[in-house]
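Now for a chain:

_____
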Amino acid sequence: MSFVINPYRFGAGAPATDFGNNSRDFDGTEDWIHIGDVFNFDSTGDDEVFTLAAWMKISETSFQHILGRYGTTNSIKAWMFYATTAGKLRFFWSQGTGDPVATRIYETTSAVIDSTAWVHVAMEYDGTTATLSDRVTMYINGGTGLTVGSGLTAILENGDPQYIQTVTAPLNIGGSTNDAAGTSATRFTDGKLADVRIYDALIGSTEVANLAAGTDYQTNLVGWWLLNTDDVDDYAGVNDGTNEPSAGTPSVFDADGPLD
């Protein structure tokens, strides 16, 4: 696995204070950010490790897609970090293209989403761990890591997805795709997202807590979107997003932010 790692964005990156004071507002109907066919966390071995993090202030009325490469057909399902109708947080990953694909879904045992307040969420995936149920750790507002049996529960354990499936599907923020080209989407986020990050490492509980407290951390940061600028650019690399739908009403810049 290899990524372009450029934490200073060609030498002129966002300063450490340039995140968390603003957000993007998604309408829950048609908005999403299309990033492209990148961050395909696949491997022929059990060695994938990564961390996802974001701030959210969203509704609990429907499935809310935070970040992921996920489509409605088995051939383009890979991984997704999202919230449920009950306000719980989930991580999904799959391997294979049959029907059904080998799939694991782990979920917080308690509701964590608050439509009236900002919530910091993070998820670590450790593909080096042989026991699949031990691979996922989630953090809410920088608290103690939640694992299966201690804050997380298994929603689906179908087969043994030893690694995350290679797919041709875009990475999206705020809405999952329903075709490989990513020309349309579903499961839209209804609310606000800010400071969306991908790390090519397990950053650990201390750094997750620091992010939730507003302290920047850029080591192994490979994707960084929705800062304090009215754009959907990638401030850790070259994977800029496209604000969709281009022919409709896309997400809008909002002065409400978690670190105001």
Summary: The first strand starts at residue 23 and ends at 27. The chain has one helix and 18 strands. Residues 204-212 form the longest helix (9 residues).
